Amino acid sequence: MKPKQFPEANVTYAKDQPEYQPLPAFKNDSPQGEVISCWQLSFRERMRVLVKGEIWISLMSFNKPLIPSFITTKKEDVLNSQSSKVRRQKLFSFFKRKSKLDAEC
Fold first, then answer.
1. Domain extent at residue 1
2. pLDDT tens digits for 43-78?
3. H-helix or E-strand containing 57?
């Protein structure tokens, strides 16, 4: 799986850092500070997803609260869609409620 350039990308993370793979992304200037990237699956990865129906994700939290993540196969879910904003707001509100509950425990 490799990061893929896309027309809406307005930033490239790790561009001049040879130890990392450059990550083209769209950074949204919003209160949530969304960063959206696109990933291209190899033929073998597409076959694995087709057969298994699974995608595994590893996120580094540096022992801090987990940052809300949204994974999709549709660009419209994350870019240029009013309905995607509603879906993301629901997701973010879920994490806000969960953080408050965790803090109370």
1. 1-56
2. 999 999 999 999 999 988 899 988 888 899 899 988
3. none
